[in-house]
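In response to reviewer comment 3 from the previous cycle, which asked for concrete evidence that the modeling workflow produces usable outputs, we include below a single protein chain processed end to end. The sequence was submitted unchanged, and the resulting structure tokens are shown without manual editing.
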Amino acid sequence: MQRVSPLVASLLGVVLGVLATLLAVIATRTRPVADDPVATPVLPPMLVTTIEHLRGPAVVLGPHDEVLTESPAAASSGLVRGRRLAAEVLELVREARREHEPGVLNLNVPGGLGMPARKLAVRVAPLGEELVLMVADDRSEALRVDETRRDFVANVTHELKTPIGAVSLLAEAIAGAADDPDAVLHFTQRLSDEAARLNELVSQIIALSRLQSTDPLLAASPIDIAEVVDVVLDQARALADSRGITLTQHRSGAAFVRGDRDHIEAALRNLVQNAIAYSDAGARVTITTRLSSDTAGDWVEISVSDNGIGIAEADQPRIFERFFRVDYGRSRASGGTGLGLSIVKHIAAAHGGTVSLWSRLGQGSTFTLRLPAHHPDSDAEGTAA
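The workflow returned the following structure tokens.
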């Protein structure tokens, strides 16, 4: 356990301040009568309603550390077990009673029943002689975002250094070979390649930043997947022909999704370009579109398959990480930035879908983009109504 930052403490203090004022006023009304020292305090309905409408975990405890009322989030927070608090928090409550002072701590709550582990900032405050208020703030998402941002900045800094350093060295080489036209031509071509790589990297970074800062569903529209696939294949045709790779597609019927067309095209373009980059001459890349259903609803599944080099099982869990490359040499030769699959993952998540991978070394890979299906007939019915 460790103390939380002053900022978090002050934010929690706002909630505590409002509730403490209310509880201080009614504290004398909740004491047990003299001839019944163990009677359970009766909380005013207004207080119970206030606690029940709080979004985060919140609990009011009685004189024997029993839970008198709790917010809906308290039960699933791991802090409340039955009508009692978890041992880690209970000790903080008892210390607050003894010292007549608020207490604050950071608590790691293990996951369970499919729930991830969480990091909670917990604050308790004694209210009168009997009642204690406990509120908690789930900081897991904020900490995850901060960690992701730090890692992203560190990775970007490292990735940019390589092409920038190469451009600098090649410029010096050109200056030093001014009297050798062949050397100048050679270094100029390499300089052009590094500049193109740098431009692609910056473009991918900007694209990823935009994905993380905007919601594509705010201006969503119906998208015909067949049209998107045709556009992506046309754009990739020249690259595939230059590498001797055949592009094909299979459709099982009309398929529509709702979202941002540019984003969906970008996701498929990244998957197709990856499949081409990691396939040898004579290979085949296929886009297959099909419809599926499960208890969650109807889905459009767009699979991009290749019979290329495949991905080792040990590398597959990291394949969607930013800047991760299975084969750095091949990725560099093809102009890859290591951001393409990360962008695909963000686009899928932003549209309420997923992206998955099947792969075997020497047999190839299949990436499947799974998005909620959209039924155009429902739009027509809504307009008529």
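The radius of gyration is 29 Å. We consider this sufficient to address the reviewer's concern, and the full set will be provided in the supplementary archive.
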